[in-house]
């Protein structure tokens, strides 16, 4: 399973390991995105994070992002590993690696991947602060899915 | 019987990872209405997956299916 | 010297090592660019590459790119290591790591860094093919610097 | 004396990494003209650095400076 290109794991994520999966003779460019736990968000101090996933579906959705990337950038190869469980400040939550023959495509495809993860992959983040904790993305109910599923394109920061 | 998986704040609110409901066939929309009433949850922002694929509100859930209630995701 | 953020080295480059230099509590996003030796360029097969640098000046120019990035993206931290000597197919020539609080800046600053490396850092690449070898960027003399130095903005692929 | 470092194809063409020329003071432009004639090299595409900083064609090179002839770069 560790050899799969799209993984949900409770183990620490190795940048090298994810990157190695996309190295190939045809590619001259690899772009990585590494999401780490940030201490301050909008002035509020985070102590730690808890990530929960629906792992089997999340891996399918990551693979779907890989397919979408191949429709848009046929020469790109993508590997993504997302961690679950308790993470401390600066721990790695996600590594996305994309290799392409030319670098502009690697940047664009990589950025597309992280945008899509935030839209369609069933993973949830609970922030632990000094004065409480909260699941992110739900409690304000400021998002709704009238169609019962995510739109194809939707931008959230 | 339909198995229903719940996650994140919903799991905490409903006190478990899995519920079951007894239907031979029901639309996603009807199922959400039933769950909203039974468990006093808001379902406006809930996405639904049937057997690990996102579903539309008019899609049919059948006995034996696994449904997941998916609150707005926040991975990455 | 290995602790410096901007390094020219004849040793293999570690992605982890360069990335670790930019990890910090304030940053939630790291973008890496990894330039590897590609086998085929415009249909021509490369056997290996030789990189030569003017190391002391090249490190100063890399540091200058870091300063330029901080003018444009004040919250970004940049580390760059470029290798010299003989490289085989898929060997890493350069690793650029940029960390920022928010991801869009990390992508933009990282792409800026690789563009600038290709403009102002005194490093030269010699391609070895089956039927010969050639220093890249000079032999066609299709570039000229009438002012005696590079323009501030110039795009080459 | 002015030290001149050369790189890449220029180094191979001139058979070494370092040349010297004897001037107390000379502009970059004049120095390039002199080198172009002396070594039969084209200098249109050559950038010049004085003591590891890029220089303009009107900048002055002085005795003791290290000049680098920098062909179009191709790193990355």
UniProtKB/TrEMBL annotation, chains A, C:
It comes from the Bacteria. GO terms for biological process: Mo-molybdopterin cofactor biosynthetic process. It catalyses: 2 [molybdopterin-synthase sulfur-carrier protein]-C-terminal-Gly-aminoethanethioate + cyclic pyranopterin phosphate + H2O = molybdopterin + 2 [molybdopterin-synthase sulfur-carrier protein]-C-terminal Gly-Gly + 2 H(+). InterPro entries: MoaE_sf, Mopterin_biosynth_MoaE. GO terms for molecular function: molybdopterin synthase activity. Gene3D superfamilies: Molybdopterin biosynthesis MoaE subunit. Its EC number is 2.8.1.12. Keywords: Molybdenum cofactor biosynthesis, Transferase. CDD domains: MoaE. Pathway: Cofactor biosynthesis; molybdopterin biosynthesis. PANTHER family: MOLYBDOPTERIN SYNTHASE RELATED (PTHR23404). Heterotetramer of 2 MoaD subunits and 2 MoaE subunits. Also stable as homodimer. The enzyme changes between these two forms during catalysis. Belongs to the MoaE family. This is Molybdopterin synthase catalytic subunit. It comes from Jeotgalibacillus soli.
UniProtKB/TrEMBL annotation, chains B, D:
The keyword Nucleotide-binding applies. One of its GO terms (cellular component) is molybdopterin adenylyltransferase complex. Keywords: Molybdenum cofactor biosynthesis, Nucleotide-binding. InterPro entries: Beta-grasp_dom_sf, MOCS2A, Mopterin_synth/thiamin_S_b, ThiS/MoaD-like. Pathway: Cofactor biosynthesis; molybdopterin biosynthesis. One of its GO terms (molecular function) is nucleotide binding. PANTHER family: MOLYBDOPTERIN SYNTHASE SULFUR CARRIER SUBUNIT. Belongs to the MoaD family. Involved in sulfur transfer in the conversion of molybdopterin precursor Z to molybdopterin. This is Molybdopterin synthase sulfur carrier subunit.
